[in-house]
Amino acid sequence: QVQLVESGGGLVQAGGSLRLSCAASGRTFSSYNMGWFRQAPGKEREFVAAILWSAVSTYYADSVKGRFTISRDNAKNTVYLQMNSLKAEDTAVYYCAADQFARRFQLATYSYEYIYWGQGTQVTVSS
User: Fold this and answer.
1) Residues 55, 29: Cα–Cα separation, whole Å
2) What is the mean pLDDT of residues 111-122?
């Protein structure tokens, strides 16, 4: 069983920054790609960013490119999402997720490709 626990969410003014963390336990974290998704009220869950198991490659949704940075520390079994220049439309519950396949070289952007999910952390950006 894999457990993912997000933290770092909160209330921030537009233009501000937040750093989300996702701590993983239960399997070899360093072998799996990780992703961040978000879900706003009344909307479907959407892809935000993903990072390769080796951290050599990342991929972002167009809506966050240039503002968000995904990273990972395999020694700490943790993946991060640094969010800068936040906008009101970034308000959502943010989830981290682990890819279902080990050492995959293609980054997944669909939620069904991720098998383990955290409980989510609320990010609210006031305008």
Assistant:
1) 12
2) 96
Question: How many percent of the chain have pLDDT more than 70?
Answer: 100
| Long-range pairs for 9-13: beta carbons < 8 A, 24 or more residues apart | 9/94, 9/121, 9/122, 9/123, 10/122, 10/123, 10/124, 11/124, 11/125, 11/126, 12/86, 12/123, 12/124, 12/125, 12/126, 13/125, 13/126
Q: What are the start-end ranges of the E strands in the chain?
A: 3-7, 10-13, 18-25, 32-39, 46-51, 58-60, 68-73, 78-83, 92-102, 114-117, 121-126
pLDDT at 114: 96
